[in-house]
Design goal:
Mean pLDDT is 78; it is low at 54-106 and 109-115. Strands 1, 7, 8, 9, 10, 11, 12, 13, 14, 15 and 16 form an 11-stranded mixed beta sheet that branches. Strands 2-3-4 form a 3-stranded antiparallel beta sheet. It has a two-stranded antiparallel sheet with strand order 5-6. It has 2 domains: 3-76 and 110-158, no CATH class; 169-279 and 291-372, no CATH class. It has 403 residues and is of the alpha+beta class. It is flat, with a radius of gyration of 29 Å. It is built from 9 helices and 16 strands.
Length: 403
């Protein structure tokens, strides 16, 4: 797997995108660059990144005449040029003595691992790193060098737009710490500096859909009026039949195009100001992690229909105000003229394990909105219980002594 690192043209240090400055900065010489300046410095970087992963030749760490700095490709494993059918006599004898069931299990595990893992060579330190197949940008686990995996966001998987990070890591940590400071019963080690250091910036893939929807709704409504005349109470119930029909415009309906189990945490930090979205450029991923799209339009379409129905029915119900009760009898929404855009949205993520359960938290990378369920400390709850019980016991003793 070929990887690319954006290098500083001045000192050859790694470049990362700064949410605060909205520039690509070098932490070594403190230089800052715009996207246009990077395009001018590395005119062929996008061509390399957009190449399919299996067509990029050349050994690891060796850049060709047309390859920008930071390009590296996974090295072939030792003996890869040998014939796959060649076996030594001891190996052939061991294979013949291995039961089929015992040999089949490791092969199935290897096949499953190969189907969900990607291996690359860090162009900075030469370490061999393995990540998930859905990862498009990450860090080297050893030297923390930011890398972009070539071919992951190319062709049909290339996003149309990206919303850059505007909330820095320090700001996300500060907002999360402020939230925890207001909660009395979270564990003590939950908001420590070592825990907040786990905050990671990730670009998640979303489908944003625009469409026109033809809608129709039939409903029954009631109005109940009660009044008193003398000692007699009167109740008047009026029944109405309502019809609503027309067209609605749907704009930027968000659908998470990832198969993550914590999808509700990611969508929970919505909405985003999409007016700040920019045409996709690989350089925005430098310094962050990124996920490639795992759901195509066909697989995401049922989710879009469900969201469109929910939105349209809610809007139609809002037009039926002034009634005591409303019962929808029939409803239909038929989207037309759909326009799908693949967009990467910024999210700060963090996880915490407490009593064998993993809690996931997300922070909107644009406005700082937080989503997640906080854990409860059993020790603090017990302390509260015994404190209240002890206080009541002392009050009873004092009351008995006074009486």
């Amino acid at each position: 797997m070929a990887v690319v690192t954006y290098k500083c043209p001045n000192c050859d240090g790694p470049l990362t995108f700064s949410p605060e400055r909205q520039r690509f900065v070098c932490d070594y010489c403190l230089s800052a660059f715009t996207q246009q300046e990077l395009d001018k410095a590395f005119p062929q970087m996008d061509d390399i990144l957009n190449q399919p992963a299996d067509t990029q030749g050349g050994p690891a760490g060796q850049a060709g005449a047309q390859t920008p700095p930071g390009f590296a490709k996974r090295q072939a494993s030792p003996g890869a040029d040998e014939s796959p059918n060649a076996q030594s006599a001891p190996d052939a004898q061991k294979e013949a003595q291995t039961p089929p069931s015992a040999a089949q299990a490791p092969e199935e595990e290897d096949a499953a691992f190969d189907g969900h893992a990607v291996e690359y060579i860090c162009p900075s330190c030469g370490a061999q790193v393995v990540c998930e197949d859905a990862t498009a940008a990450t860090f080297c686990y050893y030297c923390h060098n930011p890398v972009v995996l070539a071919g992951k966001l190319s062709g049909d998987l290339k996003p149309d737009r990206v919303v850059p990070f505007e909330v820095t890591r320090e700001q996300a940590m500060e907002r999360f710490a402020q939230l925890c400071s207001k909660k009395w019963f979270v564990p003590k080690d939950f908001c420590t500096s070592s825990q907040l250091e786990k905050m990671t910036g990730v670009y998640f893939p979303f489908w944003l859909v625009d469409a026109d929807a033809q809608v129709q709704m039939s409903a029954n409504a009631q109005n109940v009026r009660t009044w008193n005349t003398g000692n007699t109470q009167y109740t008047e119930t009026s029944f109405y039949h309502l019809e609503r029909a027309g067209y609605m415009q749907l704009t930027d309906v968000p659908i998470l195009a990832s198969l993550r189990q914590d999808a509700s945490r990611i969508t929970g930090v919505y909405p985003y100001d999409l007016s700040s979205a920019k045409p996709f450029h690989m350089a925005y991923l430098s310094g962050f992690m990124a996920q490639k799209r795992e759901l195509d339009k066909e697989k995401a379409h049922p989710q879009f229909l469900s969201l469109a129905n929910e939105f349209c029915q809610r809007r139609l119900r809002e037009t039926c105000s002034g009634y005591s009760s409303l019962q929808v009898q029939s409803f239909s929404a038929t989207p037309q003229n759909e326009d799908w855009e693949h967009t990467l949205l910024p999210v700060w993520t963090m996880s915490y394990t407490h009593r064998g359960k993993t809690y996931c938290y997300t922070v909107n990378g644009q406005n700082g909105k937080i989503c997640g369920k906080l854990p409860l400390s059993g020790k603090k709850l017990l302390a509260l219980f015994f404190g209240i019980w002890g206080g009541l016991f002392l009050l009873c003793l004092l009351g008995g002594w006074l009486l």
